[in-house]
Structures are given as C-alpha cells and as structure tokens.
Amino acid sequence: MSVLRPVLTRDEETGIAYLKFADAGPGPTRQETVSLSDDPNDADLVLDFNARGQLFGIEFLNSAHLPPEG
User: Is the pLDDT of residue 31 over 90?
Assistant: First the structure.
C-alpha cells in the first residue's frame, strides 16, 4: 500500500466527500458502513479496506459537518 498525502474531494450536489490517504494496491477491496447516530438505517461513513485489511479511504455520506475545502 502506497501512502499518499491525504486528499479530500467533495461533491457539493450530493453532499458526499471522500478522503483518500493511500492507494488500495492489488487485490480485492471491501467496504464497511458506519453509522454515527442511533438510527441503524442512517449510514454516515463508508470505510474502504484493501486486500490486507488496511484502511485506505473514507467516504463521508453527509459532508455538511466537514470544514470547507481550501
């Protein structure tokens, strides 16, 4: 896994942001959804793991609480 300078991209239309801090590398990846509220149907984050189980990115499904870019 190649570590990168963290890069935050944001889609203002959908409110989704993605923080990538490493390349996934070879092999399959998996995602794990995390809810930060008491509602199990309310997903807030999607964690991306590479084939070795290392976290390489985080998708924020509601980026309104993140600081502005820049």
Answer: yes
